[in-house]
Specification:
The complex is a heterodimer.
Chain A (H helix, E strand, L loop, with lengths): L1 E4 L14 E4 L4 H11 L3 H5 E2 L3 E2 L3 E5 L2 E3 L10 E6 L5
Parallel strand pairs in A: 1-7
Antiparallel strand pairs in A: 1-2, 3-4, 5-6, 5-7
Chain B lengths: L2 E8 L2 E7 L6 E6 L5 E7 L4 E8 L3 E7 L7 E3 L15 E8 L2 E7 L2 E5 L7 E4 L7 H4 L12 E6 L7 E5 L3 E5 L7 E2 L19 E6 L7 E5 L2 E5 L7 E2 L9 E6 L7 E5 L15 E4 L7 E3 L17 E3 L7 E4 L5 E4 L7 E4 L5 E9 L1
Antiparallel strand pairs in B: 1-2, 1-28, 2-3, 4-5, 5-6, 6-7, 8-9, 9-10, 10-11, 12-13, 13-14, 14-15, 16-17, 17-18, 18-19, 20-21, 21-22, 22-23, 24-25, 25-26, 26-27
The chains are: A alpha+beta, B mainly beta.
Chain lengths: ~90, ~350
């Protein structure tokens, strides 16, 4: 099971969505798919059509910058970060 | 008097200002999770509020509330260009509602439609093939802050007829529900070279008289214009104003000759002249103009107002409202003669619309 940590900007958009959850996922894209299945529309908040990760959203797997295709190990940690920017 | 609700779209969410007498106003918000809101509207047929928003992090969406802001939801299902095309959506800029139908103007330029109250969306038109489309469909040709389709205006009677502004290009009219479009720029002026005769005009805001559908006014990048034939021909009425430039405009609900505009300094400033705030009014269809300043700051007030930043209600003595780039909302209930500041410290304001709640 991967440990998935989401940015604070997401839960207010999707009732019941926690900041931290465990998912049995094989890739980053699988994480997004499972999140979107439980909270419809969530993929749009993280990805653009393509699909591609939105420019100011970063995924890290075990502290390494990841893409949608990055595979997950058992007990991988997935951090989804809204880039520190803006004002 | 019915309850008035001002829908204020700001860079940090949507706010509501409510009043039963148009003098004492109560503020609620921020809503929409502080997302930048480009345009918030009230659909009088359903009672819903819709807010066009775009987050740098999470993309574009349309928020909706069916209980005057008590609860909100958002959806962008279908609100995106196809992945295999060159067009990408940066923001939802503008909304229009009529008879259960919702249209959204977006950047890169296009129009999306929802017929289920903003739950799902589909691409309605990109005005593909119209004059200028090769310019606005070029991904390398999207200016900073571009709004794409910056305005959509329904005809009051014919559901298949409406107007859309492609920013920096043209006002377009369709009479067959978007199947074909006609540029409506005859008589306009541009101060730059234009590659295509019919388009290349920077139309900022178009308003139409509720009492005479043939009468339109427009604030353009380089002046003010009036139309007496529903946009087919335009006559310049800039003379008497302190500047050609401005964004916001409002037309009187009962008098086709009366029209309000807020001239701004052009260039990078885009604030009111000499730090003195004023709304300018004509009562003779642009023959003469008069500055309305009483109650507005007249010293060190370098404030701007954007294209959706002014609204007017339809009471016998109509209320006029505008929101500024520095977060103030001003209101007048005597046709602009005197003004009151009804909100002072909001985020930068993109839009002000008025909803009448009976």
């Amino acid at each position: 099971m991967a440990d998935v940590y989401l940015p604070s900007t997401l839960p207010p958009l999707f009732p019941g969505l926690p900041r931290h959850l465990e998912l049995d996922a094989t890739t980053v894209d699988d994480v997004v798919a499972q999140l979107d299945a439980s909270w419809p529309g969530l993929r749009d908040r993280l990805c653009e059509p393509g699909p591609a990760i939105r420019p100011h959203i970063h995924f890290y797997v075990d502290r390494e910058r990841a893409t949608l295709g990055t595979p997950l190990e058992t007990r991988s940690r997935v951090d989804v970060i809204a880039a520190i920017s803006g004002g | 008097m019915p309850r008035m609700v001002l829908l204020v779209g700001t860079r940090k969410g949507c706010f509501l200002l409510e009043s039963d007498d148009r003098r004492d106003w109560k503020l609620r918000g921020p809503f929409c999770e502080n997302w930048p809101v480009y345009h918030a509207i009230h659909d009088s047929s359903s009672g819903a509020i819709y807010a066009a928003a775009a987050s740098e992090w999470h993309g574009s969406t349309v928020w909706r509330s069916h209980d005057l802001g008590e609860t909100w939801e958002q959806s962008s299902e279908g609100l995106a260009y196809e992945a295999d095309g060159e067009k990408k959506m940066s923001k939802v800029s503008n909304l229009a509602a009529k008879n259960g139908r919702l249209l959204a103007g977006v950047e890169m330029p296009g129009i999306f439609e929802s017929t289920d109250g903003g739950v799902t969306w589909s691409q309605f038109s990109t005005l593909a093939g119209e004059p200028g489309s090769t310019i606005w469909d070029n991904p390398a040709n999207q200016p900073p802050g571009h709004l794409g389709v910056s305005a959509i205006m329904f005809d009051t009677e014919d559901d298949a007829r409406f107007w859309a502004i492609v920013q920096g290009i043209s006002l377009f009219e369709t009479t067959d529900d978007g199947k074909s479009w006609t540029p409506r720029n005859v008589g306009l002026r541009a101060d730059w070279p234009r590659e295509i005769d019919e388009v290349g005009f920077c139309v900022h805001k178009v308003v139409r008289s509720p009492v005479d559908g043939d009468r339109m006014y427009q604030q353009n990048h380089v002046g003010m214009w009036r139309s007496d034939d529903c946009g087919q021909n335009w006559t310049e009425i800039t003379e008497g104003l302190p500047s050609e430039f401005g964004f916001a405009a409002a037309t009187h609900p009962h008098d086709r000759e009366t029209f309000y505009v807020i001239p701004l300094d052009p260039g990078h400033g885009r604030t009111m002249h000499d730090g003195q705030a004023a709304v300018w009014r004509t009562r003779d269809a642009g023959e003469t103009w008069h500055a309305l300043r009483t109650g507005l700051p007249q010293q060190d007030a370098y404030i701007g107002v954007l294209r959706e930043g002014m609204a007017i209600d339809a009471e016998d003595s109509p209320g006029l409202y505008f929101g500024t780039s520095t977060g103030q909302v001003f209101a007048s209930v005597d046709e602009g003669e005197t003004w009151n500041e009804i909100a002072s410290y909001l985020p930068a304001i993109s839009s002000v619309e008025v909803a009448v709640i009976d």
